[in-house]
Amino acid sequence: MMESRILLVEDEPSIARGLIFNLEEEGYVVLHVITGEEALAALADENFALVVLDLMLPGMDGIEVCRRLRRLDPRLPVLMLTARGEEKDRVEGLTAGADDYLTKPFSLEEFLLRIKGILRRSKWYHRTGPEEDYVFGANRVNLQEGTARNADEELTLTDLEIRMLRLFFRHEGETLPRAEILEAVWGVSPDTETRTLDNFIVRLRKYFEADPANPRHFLTVRGRGYRFVREPDQG
What mean pLDDT comes out for the span 191-216? Predict the structure, then answer.
């Protein structure tokens, strides 16, 4: 079944063997490729539920693979793996379209939990019914279609962006704790990869704020979390 098929893009044999063994033990069907070029060819020919993508690859790197993958399928979930844990690397990966990020070395337990969480939320998204356009400021978002329009351009949203926006829209005006967002969107405990959340807020502000440095809709509540405000001038 397509929902159990995972594309693993990893050039380190020892890591690939361990990941393949554990994924197959969990019942997933895994196609393993070594290069970005092989990954894009596989994505053009076959359907997958998830891509596990190493950042450092021979030839085309994972960032470029992710950018091209997003042009092929804007909503296919991508979990990026890398030995580079610097903030700029995370931001670059997330900006390219990755949904989640794990820094090597990581535990297999955490890896499998991330996989299960991503796939569970992806399946849930595809079962949801029709939704009306959601309008705020100069923006219009259709979560069912996965599309948005800001003041300047049309946007195609990833699954993770859709899940995060749905959470904010449903809790309009409420302060959402970081732990609640991490659990609802990523399915992870609040002590893992918390900077991923902050980087995604930056991404949403770039999409939907007229001045991302001075946001009016996606607000930081210091020491607590984030709040979405639909009509700032009416608060």
Answer: 86
Q: Which domains does the chain have, with CATH numbers?
A: 2-126 (3.40.50.2300), 134-234 (1.10.10.10)
Residue of 172, 100, 176, 179 whose CA lies nearest to 141: 172
d(CA 213, CA 55): 29
Instruction: Indicate whether this model's pTM tops 0.85.
Output: no
Residue that has been written with the tokens 């950018």 in this structure: 67
Backbone angles phi, psi at 50, to 5 degrees: -165, 145
Strand partners of residue 218: 228
pLDDT in tens, 170-201: 889 999 998 888 877 876 655 555 677 888 89
CB 80 within 8 A of CB 51: no
Strand-pair partners of 79: 52, 100
Q: Are 178 and 172 in contact (CB under 8 A)?
A: no
Q: In what order do the strands lie in the sheet with 134-136?
A: 134-136, 139-142, 147-149, 154-156
